[in-house]
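Help!! Second protein's tokens look totally different from the first
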Amino acid sequence: MDLSNSCDINFWLKHGGSNTQTCEASDLAGENVLLEYSTDGASWTLIDTYSFAGPFGSWGQECATIPPGAKTPTTRFRFRQPDNSGVGFDNWALDKVETDVLCTQAEISYTWSGGPVANPFSATTTATPTTTTTYTVTAIHGNQTMTASVTVTVSPPPTGGTTTGNSTACAGSCTHTISLAGHNGTVSFWQEDPGCSGNWQTIQNQNNSITPCVNTTTCYRAAVVTAGCPPAFSTSSTLTVESIGTLSSNQNICVGGNVQTLNLTGTSCNVQGWEKSVTNNCRTLPNQATWTPVAAGMSHTPVGLTDTTCFRAIVSCNGCPAARTNIVTIDVDEPPTFDPITSDYTAVCAGDPGPIIELNRYVRTLVRWEESIGCTGNNWQPLQPPYDNEMPTPSHGTPGVNCYRAIVRNGLCPEQPTPPHEQAAVDVITRDAVNLY
């Protein structure tokens, strides 16, 4: 028989009959029935022994697990009785020999013991022990009984304990130690929360203390675990870094304009002084700029600025080294400058298009062009846009001299007109005039 993938052999066995005088059953040692297997037909191995137990003449179902050595393509079974008391004695009968009839879990009974379980008669179950418990399962398969045990170790839940080390620290310091005590379990990791706002970030550290480098006020706590349990967090400790405050604010003025007072807010630190720099890169590369002391006090009002200037304050907190605040910049705009306005010609016949006037060079923004009829100097009117440094003048039918000027602005500086000596004048004449141009 090919029993490579078989599990069990099942059969029905009967010892003797109901008439003990004519069909006596086996009742002495050596008169048992043996089940054996062979893979070569020569050597035989015992699987199980069956002795009489029960009423005469009763059939009983027997089941045996096929041992690993019998799981081959060429396996033979045999039933034999090594000894008997002679003819008419020690009778037995065999019927319905099959393999794998009971090879399903449904035909195996299970019983769990050792403690409460969710399914005490199932092959698999769950349990929720509160203490370390050993569970034993008993499996009965036919006449085969097997047991197995598993121990579930229950660890006590962790307690996070208490951290110590609340302190005031200098920005950039790495000297303050926070320690954990009163905990049950081992430290799995630490966490930090810059700003103490609830945004915890993990630090890979499994020691009972931590010495962090701190730049801003930060809270710290430890996560403690025991085997199989979720972490418990300790109390938190805070390293308070005194804020050096915020300097406000950037401004833009024209040369000689007023600067709003610079104020340092959000700090209780002492202001040791103020510094300024007119280096071009003072706002982007402050460490490469040249700084000059200018004043003391919690605020500063710069005056007389002629160039773009950076400012910062020097503060000291709780014995920490002096620190520089953020930088504010006062951008200083210069008034616009001009070259004289030129024209391709200065006389035009009445009714003809006016000449093109040109502002050769100016600084910053051309706002508009204006015209004064008769060059009175007090009746300037804007020309029609668009405006460019080259501007066509309008046609006029009335003879006379008309003046033109440009209005230019730079940053926050006031609008500036072309100075009178640099304005353009156009003479509108009649066609029969004798004036020479």
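Here's the second one for comparison:
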Amino acid sequence: MSEPPLRENVGSYIVRDKRGTYMSGYSQKLGEKNARTWARACAKRSKGVLYFRKDEGGAEEEMESYLASLNKNN
């Protein structure tokens, strides 16, 4: 009998809006630099929050926030 294939731990960058609604996700399978760059661009454009999840079903860790500032002098 052959062994089942090992499950790859591949992380994802997740973008959510100010209400926490899922906007988009980018897997590290796209390449680390590409996934992070595209997720950051999406978060900036949507004024959302960028999270990283180490593996499917894992907890999301906040990395960067692009939420609109309440201070209009920016």
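Reply: Different proteins will give different token patterns, so don't panic. The chain has one domain: 12-65.
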